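Action item from last meeting closed. Structure (79 res):
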């Protein structure tokens, strides 16, 4: 019974470390001709076409209780 519990504990630790690593390593990425991909581990994967991006800015505020949030801005409307 102790060996089974040890294996389950090690597996649980591995899962937590892997989940944390998936949130930290390459959280967002893009390619020259591809879309912008926003990641939050395996929980969130949003693809935004490059032609839809008007401007970019750094914002270190996190939405409370959510993985992501969309703010309405005064940018031009899309056709």
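Sequence:
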């Amino acid at each position: 019974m102790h060996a089974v519990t040890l294996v389950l504990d090690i597996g649980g630790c591995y899962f937590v470390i892997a989940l944390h690593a998936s949130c930290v390593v390459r959280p967002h990425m893009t390619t020259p001709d591809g879309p912008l991909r926003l990641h939050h581990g395996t929980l969130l994967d949003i693809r935004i076409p490059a032609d839809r991006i008007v401007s970019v800015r750094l914002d270190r505020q996190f939405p409370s209780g959510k993985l992501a949030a969309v703010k309405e801005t005064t940018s031009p409307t899309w056709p």
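Note appended to the action item: The mean pLDDT is 78.
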